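Figure caption, in words: inputs first, then the predicted bound structure.
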Amino acid sequence: MTEPNAPEPSCLDDTEPDFISMEDARQTIFAAAPPRGRHHYVPLADALNRVLARDFLATLDVPRRDNSAMDGWAVNTQGQGAPANSRFREIGVALAGQPFEGQVGPGEAVRITTGAWVPAGADTIVIHERAGFADGTVTSFDAAEPGQNLRRAGEDVRAGEVLIAAGTRLMPAHLGLLGSVGTSEVLVTRPPRVAYFSTGNEVRTAGESLEAGAIFDSNRHTVAAMLRRLGIEVLDLGVVVDEPEAMQRAFGQAREAAEVIITSGGVSVGEADFIKPTLRGLGEARFWKVAVRPGRPFTFGLLGETLFFGLPGNPVAVMVMFYGLVQPSLRHLAGEPYRAPVQVSAVCRSRLRKRPGRTEYQRGILSRTADGGLEVEKTGMQGSGILSSMAAADCFIVLEEDDATVEPGQRVTVQPFFGLV
Ligand code: AMP
Ligand code: MG
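Bound structure (adenosine monophosphate present):
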């Protein structure tokens, strides 16, 4: 790491007038902010949405033994199967959790329920619905294939194999899998402590009076909620006024308490924009004009070990840049491998004004057409302050750098929000 205040040789600092792409910005952040590698054990019940720290090796086969997929009879066909109307003599019962201990000989059957271990000697399950039973004898109405309606030992999970790979964010199915091999605790990465403050003399907290020119804070709520989705509870440092001393105090406080600092506003080149000079005084800073709309001004920095993300002030820009850069960086920090968001192609039903030269994230609603295709419609005005357009949306319409205005009927790229977590 370079000395604080040292001039930066980077071609990405603010002496460079060129815009950079979201992708380049993301890669630069990833390189500067490697996974932290801090782990701890948590009970399985608390592991949802946490990131697995090490490969988890299965300690058991699941299922442990061959078992029945259906209610019916386990029969011995000597591995050959049996023609329709074959008869088997019932010699016992196997229930889930109560195995039949004996041996099933040729021509014999054991009544069996779903999940019960298949008794020794049996090779096929004849299902209840397709069999008759009278006088201790089962008749299979259909021809029986060897191995039919059996669930094989280890077909779900094999002992010794990687059950879940390191870096996986644990979802309900993962918790179920871990449960299926008897796990009660799991080693996960520690989420970083994150502090946030809004900036701006005009920004007020609910309950405060709203004098002329003032606005209520909305960014604090979106940022806190986007963090919560990642399993991170934010340390909320309120609103900081546009004064160098106040800014310095806030940075100091945040740095003391957190490993990641996020702010909104104050990153443009206006006279009240103090993020830049403050950050410069405290550590390394990268200021970018990311070629994205909304979102353009974005700051990334390092204050010693502490990471800094300076989001723009406009509420839609905050969300676009959080999802584009901050969220992937926090996931990277937690040890998750990067996966580009899923994008699909859809017919656009709206006219979308657009100038070439930057990528735009417009907001839309994606739906299915009668013929099974996808179409998308924009959600009203698309300015960077129109947060209602984001609230109404379920996807970004991603217009590429070279794209110009889109006319109704043209195809566009759509990024559904579900990929954003
Ligand atoms: P700035 O980048 O500080 O010039 O802010 C750009 C725009 O975003 C201005 O219109 C600000 O009033 C607005 N803004 C800044 N912070 C917030 C906030 N926390 N909530 C809502 N709007 C904000
Ligand atoms: Mg401001």
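DSSP finds seven helices and 26 strands in the chain.
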